[in-house]
Amino acid sequence: MKDENFGLVLSTKDSEDKKTARIIGTDYFILMDLDLNDDVEVKVQDKIPLGKGSDFVKQERAHLSFDDLSKDQEFETKKAVHSIVIANEPKYVKFFNDQSKEASRLHFLDGISRKLGSKILTEKELNGDFESFEDIDNRISFIESSKELIVKRVLYELAELPKEKKGRPSYLFTIVKRSNKKEVQEYDEFVTDDSRFIEMIKEKGLLEKEGKRIR
């Protein structure tokens, strides 16, 4: 599991014996619960440093899935994703610039077919790398907001992609918690054929539970 350097606070909770926070990481959008140091004060949407050297964090307690969030935390997650994408604009513009016609992932963005993805790459080849979200939007007529394309993909990867029932999901920007069901982890480790994997977890009744995809 890759490490997050910073996180945005989604919620906080104080009890008699400890302070806790639920956060989303700014590098890979990892959702997690933290125990905070007793002498710190944080509020929702604050950016805090993570890791062993952090003055804020006493201990990481658990990585979470989007389904673990309350409605208020889901709302704050959506706000946080917008903030993170805007703050890291060069990283996501680089995503567009790094694609090639031999190995493009632009078609994973909402509304971008392989044909349209090829048009984006042709524009880049003819007129140079994109410099900003605004530059992409100005040069590609069928993209209204490249920033919103990234935001929408991140939220899709957090909330919806783990529920996909065909093959193994393709994550571009996030690291999402996998199922903690032992049976599923065992199948995922030893079964390399995707179609057989799906059939096996269907047979065991592990594919869905209460309408939620397990991986």
Helix fraction? 25-40%
Q: Roughly what fraction of the amino acids lie in strands?
A: 15-25%
Main pleated sheet: 5 strands, antiparallel
| Shape designation | elongated
Low-pLDDT parts are 180-194, 208-215
Distance between the termini: 16 Å
- The number of distinct β-strands equals 7
Order of helices and strands: EEEEEHHHHHHHEE
State the helix count: 7
* Derived structural class: alpha+beta
Mean pLDDT: 86
Give, in spatial order, the strands making up the sheet with the most strands: 4-1-2-3-5
Radius of gyration: 19 Å
Describe what you observe in this structure:
There is one protein chain. The protein is of the alpha+beta class and 215 residues long. It is 38% helix and 17% strand. The strands form 2 sheets. A 5-stranded antiparallel beta sheet has the order 4-1-2-3-5. Strands 6-7 form a two-stranded antiparallel sheet. The radius of gyration is 19 Å and the shape is elongated.
Give the key terms:
single chain, alpha+beta, five-stranded antiparallel sheet, two-stranded antiparallel ribbon, 7 helices, 7 strands, elongated
Write the layout of secondary structure elements.
Layout (H helix, E strand, L loop, with lengths): L5 E9 L4 E7 L5 E6 L10 E3 L7 E7 L7 H17 L1 H10 L15 H14 L5 H7 L6 H14 L22 H9 L3 H10 L4 E2 L2 E2 L2
Antiparallel strand pairs: 1-2, 1-4, 2-3, 3-5, 6-7
